[in-house]
Amino acid sequence: NAMESQTPHQQPVNPHGNLGSEVDEERSLWWAPDGCEFEDVTWRPKSYAKDVEPQGVIIATHGLSGCTDDFIPLTRTACEYGWLLTALEMRGQGRDRRKNSRGDIPSHKTWIQDVLAFAMNAQRDYPHAPIVLLGESLGAAITMHVAATLSQHESQDSKEGMPKLRKAVKGVAL
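Now predict its structure.
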């Protein structure tokens, strides 16, 4: 069929090919406050060992039905400046390991608690690095709620790591 011969064959996209030789990628698992297990990914400059404190940490929250790979285009630039970029797979979204939970979440507050817990883990791992919270689309809305939660008075802190995280967060990008 002439039409078939004109249709390009679609190859699976390999996002790792876009990282360049100066970026290391580490995919791992983390546990949310309610005990659910989710994937996360961290991109760091290849020249940095895991125990080297980066210039800063970008914590990225993806949008509706997105996934951590949405941030691959930012990795080279972040790493060129010595920053680490880390992102979590959002509950009920794109790569939630619990496929039957995709598209479903009991409350938006769960997302906020997940991102706060993930950010507190990053602050614990890199205690002297400034943190920037980054969100795109739905992730931007979640990031705004996280920033608002962090701006509350310290007497309202419900978690032990909140004061340290509050001091570490130096910016929000939406």
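DSSP finds five helices and six strands in the chain.
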